[in-house]
Q: What sequence folds into this?
């Protein structure tokens, strides 16, 4: 039995819409039932994605298939989006009391229904983005994602920092969208195409002026740089990450970033014949690496620390992008998903008892050994300790960079890894070395415990046995020739 | 399969302890079983004198990257396993009462031991590297939670130094992997060895430099040594024993296992640099050691200093010197572990390790005085102990390289300078012994208890091993030298 790829997104949309409709009639029932339903539904769609047979994009396709591809990369990132959303929903269930407290409403459960439903629409947007091979499609799916994030980022609106985060995100994101559209028009003006493959063909024609196309690409890069939090388009990240409800922060830092990178990988392919783009990306990657890691050093608020760390990880991912290593970038993103979601999951649970600062984690090893262990593994993986997925991610990225002789990037990468050891282990120090006046165990629901256990298992499993992810990425070996031919030059 | 047991026995025991098994008893049994299995391999399973790897078993991990989980032994790795097993047992015996998080303490120790075992028994670059790193976080926790003195600074320092060093090393390893032609590319030591001759000289130089830096940071090569004394002084004694005795030797093992045989031309290109740096270890750090006022700091610096001799053996470029380096790795691991263990016992009783405060402990703790004296003699390199044989082999081997009665080359000059190090180490070791054990005993300390009788077993094993290989170095060389012969004969 096989399923056509677009069915997946449609199923997600239907799930979200029907949840919204049903929710309107269920005033009395516990709204968390909705979240459970959504998790089950998304899990079913995740399972169904394995019945989709990936197919390489057909350059001469017309109609729908010139906008949409179901290549292995796309299918892979659809699963990625689904898994992220499932874990985010689990976190949202833990976060529900906070939402309830900070939303003025007629009923005690006001707002919860939307809180649980919006991520599903985001998920659909992310899944479309993974498949988009045409600028129009990229733009539309990006907007679907952004608009649902506008709402989510300022969801707990009684909290002034959240409100600030929401407004900041709204304005800057809208601005970046403007850049994207403007860039697309320049590229369209030069090449007369919006489909990426056909843009590549048009650019290969020596008669075409590359200057305006380059300018257009520059504008597109600004917009994507905003999505992936690359320096110098990162200034929104710390405030928004700190202010937004924590599950939304997790979603932003994983889902939004991953989608940004998929689009970046796809969009860059036609433009890499222009050497200026490569130099520009190297500069951005260097800045991102150095800024993200250095700025993370003095942070005391864990959410802010994770925000800067997400900038830092964007830097490592950009090394992979510059080295044209789609496989390494994808693996790194999977590792990033596991470890970032795990740290946010622990953060949500602990923050409810004590707070979001690093010193609020003092003595966690005594209070809740399991949570401390989970955080330890997340931090070890973020820092890049072997036998965790985070290490293999860095390993693949550095390998790709060395293969392409990106010496500057490699040196910056190694130095910043040392910074990483410092600020990630700061959290470990708090949990294990310091004592806390508070000795009561942190309450943890069975579902969250299971989700954390799954994430831990994933981190360690992929840290030892990466083959499943690599297999999923390159079954019809489509991206490989591109990298090999590039390494030959 | 027995290797699988040796590697995973400590790790599984650590997990069991974390889940809730009785900490000390499980750890002790795991150490005893590991030592028993290693002894079995040493006397039974391993055939000395044969070239190549024995007891090889392999499991595929990633086909795309040609990573396999491969375990196997040659003489060099066998002796490293023996060292690890002995020191692990001693470290666990020397663990006193742990006041907080007892389970986590033993689990961390066993993780370090298991990581070392895995690194020495792996025939695959990836796991060779990864197993070593397994010890990084446990070391951080051991020093940070149970350390003494300036533990926080020490823990950060060692973790950041070793973390960075590991990533430099990782770059070197990836470049090594990439430097052989596509078809021969592999993470397997044996395959790399076969393809090594195809690595161009220029690439060899670059890779060797990276490996030297990476491994050098891990082994506290001058001037990257500053993490070591502080960390060892602050670490709880069993952690210092394991780290200084075993884990630090990983870098030296890596140089002997990878850098020398795979990159002979690279080694040639950088030998002058290495000799200059290692003289920094022997002379400069040696003088710094003399100036130390605390026993634990002195031992930490002395362990940095003695690395210089092992590096000298590695740089010597002769079979004799290289064998000496291997023997010295083993001998130093034993003597430094014993010294750190005893220093811990002394601190536990007196509450201080400042040399001028101590004195006359020989009267109250005769057994400790005897054990410390033997270990100090071994560390100085007195004849009869394995350290002596190792140092002699290293010095003769180095002197012999390009020896020419007309003119001294850098090797002969290095040998002469390094000989002074023997005097230096005699000065600080004997002075420390006099300060601690001779002279008048403080009255309040007259009732100090001597070493626990149970410690006789680990101390006996350590001393016996050192004496055995000191008197019969041939039994060591016979096992180890086939690992180097292929490299030196082909040269």
A:
């Amino acid at each position: 039995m096989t399923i056509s790829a677009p069915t997946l997104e449609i199923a997600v949309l239907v799930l979200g819409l029907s949840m919204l409709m049903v929710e309107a009639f269920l005033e009395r029932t516990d709204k968390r039932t909705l979240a459970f339903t959504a998790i089950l539904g998304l899990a079913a769609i995740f399972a169904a994605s394995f019945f989709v047979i990936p197919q390489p994009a057909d350059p001469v396709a017309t109609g729908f298939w010139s906008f949409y591809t179901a290549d292995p990369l796309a299918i892979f990132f659809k699963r990625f989006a689904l898994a992220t959303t499932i874990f985010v929903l689990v976190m949202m269930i833990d976060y529900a009391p906070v939402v309830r407290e900070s939303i003025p409403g007629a009923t005690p459960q006001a707002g919860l229904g939307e809180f649980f439903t919006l991520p599903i629409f985001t998920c659909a947007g992310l899944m479309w983005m993974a498949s988009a091979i045409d600028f129009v499609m990229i733009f539309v799916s990006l907007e679907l994602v952004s608009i649902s994030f506008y709402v989510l980022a300022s969801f707990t609106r009684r909290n002034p920092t959240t409100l600030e985060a929401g407004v900041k995100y709204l304005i800057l994101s809208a601005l970046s969208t403007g850049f994207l559209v403007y860039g697309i028009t320049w590229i369209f003006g030069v090449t007369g195409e919006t489909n990426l493959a056909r843009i590549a063909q048009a650019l290969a024609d020596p008669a075409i002026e590359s200057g305006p196309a380059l300018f257009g690409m520059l504008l597109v890069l600004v917009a994507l740089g905003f999505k992936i939090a690359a320096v110098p388009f990162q200034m929104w990240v710390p405030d928004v990450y700190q202010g937004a409800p924590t599950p939304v922060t997790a979603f932003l830092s994983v889902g939004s970033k991953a989608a940004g990178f998929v689009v970046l990988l796809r969009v860059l392919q036609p433009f890499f014949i222009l050497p200026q783009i490569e130099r520009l990306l190297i500069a951005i990657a260097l800045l991102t690496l150095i800024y993200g890691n250095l700025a993370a050093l003095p942070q005391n608020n864990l959410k802010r620390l994770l925000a800067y760390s997400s900038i830092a990880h964007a830097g490592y991912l950009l090394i992979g992008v510059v080295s044209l290593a789609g496989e390494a970038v994808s693996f790194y993103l999977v590792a990033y998903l596991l470890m970032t979601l795990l740290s946010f999951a622990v953060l949500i649970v602990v923050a409810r008892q004590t707070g979001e600062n690093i010193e609020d984690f003092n003595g966690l090893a005594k209070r809740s050994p399991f949570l401390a262990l989970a955080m330890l593994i997340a931090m070890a993986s973020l820092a890049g300790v072997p036998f965790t997925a985070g290490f293999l991610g860095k390993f693949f990225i550095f390998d790709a960079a060395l293969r392409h002789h990106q010496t500057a990037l490699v040196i910056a990468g190694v130095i910043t890894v040392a910074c990483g050891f410092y600020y990630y282990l700061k959290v470990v120090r708090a949990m294990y070395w310091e004592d806390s006046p508070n000795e009561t165990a942190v309450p943890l629901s069975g579902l969250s415990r299971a989700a954390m256990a799954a994430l831990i298992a994933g981190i360690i499993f992929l840290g030892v046995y990466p083959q499943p992810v690599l297999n999923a990425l390159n079954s019809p070996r489509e991206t490989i020739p591109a990298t090999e031919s590039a390494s030959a030059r | 399969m027995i290797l699988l047991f040796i590697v995973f026995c400590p790790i599984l025991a650590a997990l069991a302890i974390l889940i809730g098994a009785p900490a000390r008893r499980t750890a002790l049994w795991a150490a005893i079983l590991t030592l028993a299995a290693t002894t079995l391999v040493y006397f039974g399973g391993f055939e000395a004198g044969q070239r190549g790897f024995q007891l090889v078993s392999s499991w595929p991990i990633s086909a795309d990257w040609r990573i396999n989980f491969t375990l196997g032994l040659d003489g060099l790795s066998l002796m490293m396993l023996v060292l690890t097993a002995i020191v692990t047992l001693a470290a666990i015996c020397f663990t006193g009462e742990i006041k907080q998080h007892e389970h986590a303490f033993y689990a961390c120790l066993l993780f370090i031991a298991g990581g070392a075992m895995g690194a020495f028994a792996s025939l695959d670059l990836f796991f060779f590297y990864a197993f070593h790193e397994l010890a990084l976080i446990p070391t951080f926790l051991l020093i940070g939670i149970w350390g003494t003195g300036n533990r926080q600074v020490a823990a950060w320092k060692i973790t950041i130094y070793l973390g960075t060093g590991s990533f430099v090393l990782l770059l070197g390893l990836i470049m090594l992997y990439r430097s052989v032609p596509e078809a021969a590319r592999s993470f397997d030591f044996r395959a790399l060895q076969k393809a090594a001759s195809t690595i161009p000289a220029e690439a060899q130089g670059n890779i060797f430099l990276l490996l030297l830096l990476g491994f050098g940071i891990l082994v506290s090569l001058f001037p990257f040594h500053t993490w070591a004394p502080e960390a060892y002084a602050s670490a709880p004694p069993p952690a210092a024993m394991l780290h200084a005795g075993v884990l630090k030797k990983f870098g030296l093992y890596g140089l002997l296992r990878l850098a020398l045989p795979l990159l002979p031309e690279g080694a040639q290109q950088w030998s002058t640099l290495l000799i200059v740096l290692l003289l920094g270890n022997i002379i400069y750090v040696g003088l710094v050691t003399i100036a130390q006022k605390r026993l634990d700091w002195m031992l930490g610096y002395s362990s940095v200093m003695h690395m210089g001799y092992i590096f000298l053996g590695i740089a010597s470029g002769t079979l004799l010197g290289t064998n000496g380096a291997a023997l010295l790795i083993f001998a130093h691991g034993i003597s430094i572990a014993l010294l750190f263990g005893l220093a811990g016992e002394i601190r536990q009783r007196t509450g201080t390790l400042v040399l001028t405060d101590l004195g006359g402990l020989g009267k109250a703790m005769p057994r400790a005085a005897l054990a410390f004296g033997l270990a100090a003699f071994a560390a100085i390199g007195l004849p009869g102990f394995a350290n002596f044989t190792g140092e002699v082999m290293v010095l003769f081997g180095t002197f012999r390289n390009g020896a020419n009665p007309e003119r001294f080359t850098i090797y002969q000059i290095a040998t002469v300078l390094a000989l002074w190090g023997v005097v230096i180490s005699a000065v600080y070791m004997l002075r420390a012994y006099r300060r601690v054990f001779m002279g008048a005993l403080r009255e309040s300390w007259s009732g100090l208890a001597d070493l626990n009788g149970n410690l006789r077993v680990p101390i006996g094993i350590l001393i016996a091993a050192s004496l055995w290989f000191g008197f019969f170095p041939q039994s060591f060389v016979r096992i180890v030298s086939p690992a180097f012969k292929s490299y030196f004969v082909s040269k």
About this structure: The CA atoms of residues 114 and 143 of chain A lie 18 Å apart. The first helix of chain A runs from residue 6 to 25. Chain A touches chain B through 34 residues (CB under 8 Å). Chain A is about 75% helix and 0% strand.
